[in-house]
Amino acid sequence: MPIDSLIPDTIAAPFARYAHGVATDSLVLTSGQLPLALNGSVPEGPEAQAALCFANIDAILAAGGTSKHHALRINAYVTHRDHMQGYMAARDAWLADARVLPASTLMVVSGFTRPEFLVEVEVTAVRP
Questions:
Q1: pLDDT tens digits, the chain, 128 residues: what are they?
Q2: 19, 62, 89, 128: least surrounded by Cβ within 10 Å?
Q3: What CATH number is attached to the domain comprising 96?
Q4: 3-state SS string over 19-71?
Q5: Measured on CA atoms in the order 15, 44, 75, 110, is the torsion positive or negative?
Q6: Closest to 124 in 3D by CA, of 36, 38, 27, 32
Q7: How many domains does the chain have?
Q8: pLDDT for res 37
Q9: What is the rounded CA–CA span in Å between residue 124 and residue 26?
Q10: Which residues on adjacent β-strands are paired with residue 107?
Q11: d(CA 36, CA 19)
């Protein structure tokens, strides 16, 4: 079974030696996406950050030949309980036209690699 690395050039490059996602014959798995824009900026607030994470995930899924309409699972992380509402608003907007809702987990964590990051999101999707 071939495995392809997914590193779309429309989003910020990975921080180290890893791919933003991998695709197999049947699945696409994204790495956790932090809210980093292509120009290096980070939006303020958990909702804007989560929206950027999901936009980056859209690019990775497209590179793997799938889309949010085939998402199986979302794993998300926020740095404070107060960020849950903003994250959930962005997630719900991303899933507004979803045909089937994926499984989802949301965890509160102590932090990420940079203090301005409030949200991280990863998705597993099936390839149609």
A1: 799 999 999 999 998 999 999 999 999 999 999 999 999 999 999 999 999 999 999 999 999 999 999 999 999 999 999 999 999 999 999 999 998 999 999 999 999 999 999 999 999 999 99
A2: 128
A3: 3.30.1330.40
A4: CCEEECCCEEEECCECCCCCCCCCCCCHHHHHHHHHHHHHHHHHHCCCCHHHE
A5: positive
A6: 27
A7: 1
A8: 97
A9: 11
A10: 77
A11: 15
Calculate ∠ Cα 126-124-57, nearest 5°: 105
Q: Domain range holding 55?
A: 4-126
Measured CA to CA, the distance from residue 113 to residue 34 in angstroms comes to 9
pTM of the predicted structure, to 2 decimals: 0.97
Helix (H, G, I), strand (E, B) or coil at 83: helix
Count the alpha carbons within 13 Å of 18 in the hemisphere toward its beta carbon.
Answer: 10
